[in-house]
Amino acid sequence: MPKKIVINDASEEFLRKIIELSGEVITLCDQCGTCSGGCPFVEEMDITPSQLMRKVQLGQQDVLESKTMWLCATCNTCTVRCPRGLDLSKVAEGLRQVVLRQAIDNLDLNNYPKEEIKELPQIAIIAAIRKLTS
Amino acid sequence: MKIPYFPGCSLKTSAKNFEISAISSAKVLGIDFVEIPRWNCCGVVSSLSSDDLMHHLAPVRNFVRVLEMNKTKMVENEKRMLTLCSMCYNTLKRSNQRVKNNPEELESINNFMYREEEYDGSVEVIHYLQLLDEIGFSQMTEKVKNSLENLNVAAYYGCMLIRPKEVGIDDAEEPEIFEKFLSALTAKPVAWNAKKRCCGSYLTVNNKDVVVDLAYGILNDARKNGADLIVTACPLCAFNLDNRQKNVLEKHPDFKTIPVLYFTQLMAIAFGLDEKSFGFELNYIKPNDVLKEKVFK
Amino acid sequence: MYATKLASLLKQVKPEKEIYIFYTDIRAYGKGFEEYYKKAQTMGIKYIRGKVAELEENPENKKVILRAEDTLSRQVIESEFDLVVLSTGLQLSNSSEKIINFLKLTKSSDGFLQEAHPKYKPVDTNIEGVFIAGTAQGPKDIPDTVAQASAAAARSMVSLAQKEFQVDPMLAYVHPDKCDGCGDCLNVCPKDAIVMNKETGKAEVLEALCIGCGACLPSCSKEALDFHGYTNDQMYAAIQGVLDQKKENETRIIIFADDTCTYRVADAVGIRKMKYSEDTRIIRVPSSSRISPNLMLYAFKEGADAIILGDCVKKSSRFPWSKEMTEKSLEIVNEKLKSAGIDGRRVVFSEFSAGALNYFLNIVNGMAENLKQYERIKETQRKEL
């Protein structure tokens, strides 16, 4: 049985925090699913982008445990299609920032095989470090 | 025509072939890239959170350099900043738009780098394709020495050239600037589905499998639609689509490889420049065979 | 709903067709609509809650590959279909543009024709005697179109039943004795209501065309153009009237409030007993564009310290040209104030929508606050105007 959704002051505060960080009016999302349908990474995600938006709307902080925001590479496919004009990449960035600002990284290059890192161009490494580490 | 040119990290390392082919082919058109002195990293990816001003410092510093170039007469009244790498283009342009639209933020950035000249928001970030379009793609047609008429080319826009809308150099859903470019170079642009599908970007670092799957889909779509090769404007797309073909082959042994070139390499080929300016040694899948068959007969 | 209708029709003829309707929200709001939707479901039409994100052609079999999220199961659908039909939104027909330009009707921000008032005059337009009905005014179904058309017909019968067409008395007119036939006013009227009488050689207002904005008045340097109910004499007297009690060390802000929006906002502010600067005096006008530079300069001469010109927000205004024409007058006034050494920021134009009470307070109180910082206007400066 999936757990119940609890709506309280903390959930409202969480929503406000993400709205502030992202600058997006998240309450505008009407769950049409256009973002998920076109997302190139959706198959790898545990929750779809529209589901992520819903969770933020309802202030469910367990959204921070999801992989989804870490898989968003800011390709902006959803951003240009959202009928409500929302920029989901900014919402994902807001969520990543909440985690990263607690000094919790999502990438540890020390555990990577040296040969693999050598192969990578620096544009990829710097971008990954900028988005996935604090 | 002299124009301030921002190379960025890749064009000096993994994408040297992009730079050398661009500079030498631009000369044919009378365009002189003047490298911005003391340029610094653009930041690679745009910082999107509302309170993160710090990461927009790096782009603004580069804009100040362009102002200095005008002052010292390195360029004549040319406040456009030319980019080749579409990641740099996107990041710089987004930062520029942000500080232009938020005078208070620009003021705090200016105050922070008080030893620098003040940035007034007057620099315009442009991509090389835009410049070529502006001076007229037809100018290139006149310079074509090696006809590409037998070459079917898939133009890969990726993300950064066309999204988000306020940054894109063309329509976000139906772009055609790249195809116009190809036609002017006498090549045959192919119609295909994956031209604006994301290659996986920096997830190539920590989610290699995702990128390999995406690359497989994109490359196959190009092949199925009859492309002989793919052109791109992004060093990261080039890595994911070109170098990652090694990993695609590991996963799908029957996969048929396809060369991925920078659009400027195609210019150098068409303009009949010598092989040194092609820089093929940095391309993972070599285009020599297909070029021999379709261009240098 | 029309997707449901077309799908049902197809299913009746060819029951073997597999039909899917992708939707964001089902809005089956009319009488019998919900039943119709239910019937379509009974026939086996499948509804998928999710907007289609991508369509691609399969290069091999030329079928359409569709991608969308089924938002109810939170899974992405990627499948091939033989045919994809777009359920596009409704827009005003292109041919409507001709009649809009010919009759000089206005469109609302959604691109459809604007009614004179959304609640009280839903089938009238801003042109007397022209009525709208059906999808020219906004998307609607057949019963609503018929209902609206019946209303429009009934409204038009009211006009037709009268022997003479009555127009609103608040219109522009010409003083023949003052008009010298210079023609300056001829191209000013957005409704082309001013013509030159060839026999008398003087300008004339066609009362059936004039809709009473007063924007033509500033164009006449002889003040031969005038306005019933808001005549030049009355306006000068009103300005004098609100200023003659002004004591030394007091300031006066005159608001020229347009009848439709600004005056109503000010009224609502009053009813709610909201406080604003006591130095304010309100003069009601048909539209801000009626106020000529002469009137504004006269106000400063007589002791006004600031002027606020209020009008409706352009997109919902009966006189959408008002802002532009008022700003023309403002330019002239600013020029004059400048040469007299008076701060030009003492005259502002503002757009008010009917409910913008706090905005009204901000503008008025903001001006009162600013006046404290500006240098007081000297009598010598006033005399220069």
Which structural class fits the helix and strand makeup of chain A?
mainly alpha
Order of helices and strands of chain C: HEHEEEEHHEEEEHEHEHEHEHH
Question: Could you give a short account of the major beta sheet of chain A?
Answer: none
Most strands sheet of chain C: 4 strands, parallel
Helix-strand pattern of chain A:
HHHHHHH
Share of residues in strands of chain C:
15-25%
Termini separation of chain A comes to: 35 Å
Categorize the overall geometry of chain C: elongated
Q: Regions of chain A with pLDDT < 50 over 5+ consecutive residues? A: none
Mean pLDDT over all positions of chain C: 93
Q: Which value, in Å, is the CA radius of gyration of chain C?
A: 29 Å
Gross morphology of chain A is globular
Strands side by side in the biggest sheet of chain C: 11-10-12-13
Poorly predicted tracts of residues of chain C: none
Overall average pLDDT of chain A:
95
* CATH level 1 class label of the largest domain in chain C: Alpha Beta
Short recap of the structure:
Chain A contains seven helices and no strands. Chain A is mostly helical and 134 residues long.
Describe the structure.
The complex is a heterotrimer of chains A (134), B (297) and C (385). Chain A starts with 8 loop residues before the first helix and ends with a helix. Chain A is 46% helix and 0% strand. Chain A has 134 residues and is an all-alpha fold. With 297 residues, chain B is of the alpha/beta class. Helix content of chain B is 43%, strand content 10%. Chain B has helices at residues 16-28, 57-71, 86-101, 103-112, 128-135, 138-143, 177-184, 203-206, 208-224, 235-243, 245-251, 263-270, 288-294, and strands at 2-6, 32-35, 80-83, 124-127, 152-155, 188-189, 229-232, 260-262. In chain B, the strands form two sheets. In chain B, strands 2-1-3-4 form a four-stranded parallel β-sheet, sandwiched between helices. Chain B starts with a strand and ends with a helix. In chain B, 52% of the residues are buried. The mean pLDDT of chain B is 96. Chain C has helices spanning 2-13, 33-42, 96-103, 142-161, 232-243, 262-271, 293-301, 322-339, 357-373, 379-384; strands at residues 20-23, 46-49, 52-57, 64-70, 75-81, 172-174, 194-197, 202-205, 225-227, 253-258, 280-285, 306-312, 347-352. Chain C is an alpha/beta fold. Chain C is built from ten helices and 13 strands. Chain C folds into three domains: 2-81, FAD/NAD(P)-binding domain (3-Layer(bba) Sandwich); 96-161, no CATH class; 230-384, Rossmann fold. In chain C, the strands form five sheets. Chain C has a four-stranded parallel β-sheet with strand order 11-10-12-13, sandwiched between helices. In chain C, strands 3-4-5 form a three-stranded antiparallel β-sheet, with no helix packed on it. A two-stranded parallel ribbon of chain C has the order 1-2. The chains are: A mainly alpha (134), B alpha/beta (297), C alpha/beta (385). The A-B interface holds A 20-23, 40-41, 44, 71, 73-77, 79-81, 87, 89-90, 93-94, 97, 106-107, 109, 116, 119-128, 130-132 and B 8-10, 13-15, 41, 43-52, 55, 85, 87, 159, 163-165, 172-173, 196-198, 200-208, 210, 214, 235-236, 239, 243.
